[in-house]
Amino acid sequence: MSSQDSAEFSHTTVLLDETVAMVLGAKKLADVPKSSVSGVYVDATFGRGGHSRLLLEYLADDAVLVVFDKDPQAIAVADELAAVDRRVKVVHDSFASLTDSLTRLGIDQVDGLMADLGVSSPQLDDGARGFSFMRDGTVDMRMDTSRGEPVSAWLARVSADELADVLYEYGEERHSRRIARAIKAMENYDSTLALAETIKQAHPNWQKGKHPATQSFQAMRIFINNELGDVDEFLCQSIDALKAGGQLAVISFHSLEDRRIKQFLQKHSRGQYEEDAHLPMPPIRPKYFGKPKRVAPSDQEVKANPRARSAWLRGAMRTDVAFEK
Length: 325
Prior knowledge:
Oligomer: single chain
Number of helices: 14
Number of strands: 7
CATH superfamily of the largest domain: Vaccinia Virus protein VP39
CATH class of the largest domain: Alpha Beta
Strand order of the largest sheet: 3-2-1-4-5-7-6
CATH topology of the largest domain: Rossmann fold
Structural class: alpha/beta
Shape: globular
């Protein structure tokens, strides 16, 4: 991405200080001297590098920061950073490839993992990417435009019933059947604005202050990018990827993602698995994480950046005693 593109599609990083403090294991960044932290860290969703750039201010010269992203435009920005900072290693892939990618880099375990889930502001603001129902563009929605199927191609072949299931499961859209039938009646899927208008006309109950296409667009984006599956893989792999004492910090903007993170941390901090609930004498399960933490954006941040209003930061420390009681 050129500097002009970067300026045009800017991104305000959410929960910036809080996330970097959490991944460093600090209550607040003021407690951490700059350029003082050694070790290996991972930014699993580089985006435009807001969290990475701040983290690098606190990492020592011998530290390593591995950054992941699916989006070729984000990777272009990451490559620019790596060209001027030898501590940065770039991986163009989903964070679902976490452990395999680290192994290829010769890294066994890391000291901290952070991720900022969902779609970024540059992706939303660039109509050509197809994420936005406010700007016209081809109905694409792929985070990695170098591979996979755009939403437009999927919509052309999927049945109305299958589409309705996706809208309901991934967008929690109560009117999914009605909306799916209207979408399938469209002649083509060349325009995000036309798709949004079709959904708007089919939607019988508009929530005040919320575009009626919000949940449907969200559902299609999550589905086509396998976002929830990737989150599950990433969380599972974080157990082996983190060293004892290492920190996990994950920001989510969607209830389906947040619920997964919450349940994952609860399960692996308490050692209580749902599949054991029916057993008279449940086995002792490992407690891989310490007490989970949850942080919300401040009122001041939400006022300055309305996109932060639905954000939650959750995290915990990897324990060193797996069967701690």
